[in-house]
Amino acid sequence: MLSERLRELAARRRPARVVVVGCGKFATMFLAQVRRVPAIEIAAVVDLDPERARRNLAAAGWTEAERAALFLTHDLEAALDRPDLDLLVEATGDPLAGTRHALLAIARGLHLVMVNVEADVLVGPALAARARERELVYSMAWGDQPALICDLVDWARLCGFPVVAAGKGTKYHPDFHASTPETVWRHYGLSPERAAASGMNPKMFNSFLDGTKSSIEMAAVANATGLGVPTEGLGFPPCGTHDLPFVLRPRELGGQLERAGIVEVVSSMERDGRPVRDDLRFGVYVVIEAPSEYAARCFADYGMVTDPDGRFSALWRPYHLIGLELAVSIANAVVRREATGSTREWRADVVACAKRDLREGEVLDGEGGFCVWGKLVPAERSAREGLLPIGLAHGVALRRAVPKGALLRESDVERLPESEALLLRRELAPVG
């Protein structure tokens, strides 16, 4: 068992020593749980606001003595100078900073768990290639939905089942695409005061609501598994767990998929606002096809949920526990030298789409903001049309007006600032 192998490794030499960068919600959940995993040791925590990190550690149950003994800093270089490091967890959520941190970790010979899906979708294929050149693990974060989806896809393929669709659930309505940090809390049923008291970031939560985060996560899955993406972006069909094999089959067979073998996100809300029965709002799924009549009979014999013809079935996991489960990725990287999902190719991209009519000279405010949301598109289209990735749609001014619903092109904005991410981005070549 992996847990035993991790303990054995620690007994032979020492615990796996980990640097955590970004002490937000995900990392705090991990830091709360890792105290119960003696084979993993936190060598350092890095955050731009060390005082906030200390408060989060206290909330996560770290004692005053444990907090005092921890190397906590705003300086990543200083943290990477700590001895006997094995792995870096990048959990900032900032695509530009995350790219820089990943390059530093790879240069120091550290395995990398990329919680930062934003950076992974922006330049992940280039980062993963650099890690492989150094024989290092570049991994998605177990507990986050993309890694769990990749695991279901891997299970299906290992068992010989064609993957018809794979993805996750969320709360979605078309009106949410126009949501802003000022309107986000009413969609969650919260007052701004209650959200502020709980330390909830309106831009982050708005990214989940307006469709950006779903697009980013599905792009990561497509780039890791080779699954395709819908030509016109995610459809977000309302669908409960027991309807997965009925709704998520190709249109010519009565379903709502453009074709088989793609990613898709299902909504926990009907278009008229009613809740979906047996929704998958916090879970992940894979829809598979029986490759033979015999396999289809086995689906029925063992009580699997199927479409009316018994040809398609689904497996799902109703929940994900994000940072509480992250030790699985660390153990896989350190013990097995394997990733829990890893970007391989540039098949999918997430590009900026105007939330409203945008004026010449307006400065874009990026993911979860007032101006744009991130839409999933095939990477080939993004490259061919010169579309503006959502990860670079921040702090740049528009050279011309852009109408609501239009996809922004790089030519629509002033020159993008030079960065490691922009340089890596130029290396990417679309597949598919």
What does the model show?
With 432 residues, the protein is an alpha/beta fold. The protein has three domains: 2-143 and 323-336, 3-Layer(aba) Sandwich (Rossmann fold); 148-172 and 211-320, no CATH class; 348-425, Type Iii Antifreeze Protein Isoform Hplc 12, CATH 3.90.1210. 36% of the residues lie in helices and 17% in strands. The protein has helices spanning 2-12, 25-34, 50-59, 64-69, 76-80, 95-107, 117-133, 145-158, 184-188, 192-197, 202-209, 212-225, 244-247, 293-301, 327-336, 379-385, 420-425, and strands at 16-21, 40-46, 72-73, 87-90, 111-114, 138-139, 163-170, 262-267, 284-289, 312-317, 348-354, 363-365, 372-378, 394-397. The strands form four sheets. A six-stranded parallel sheet has the order 3-2-1-4-5-6, sandwiched between helices. A four-stranded mixed sheet has the order 8-7-9-10. The chain has a two-stranded antiparallel sheet with strand order 11-13. Helix 6 (95-107) links the parallel strand 4 and strand 5. Helix 2 packs across helix 3, helix 7 (117-133) packs parallel to helix 12 (212-225) and helix 8 (145-158) packs parallel to helix 12. The longest helix has 17 residues, at 117-133. The model has no long low-confidence stretch (mean pLDDT 96).
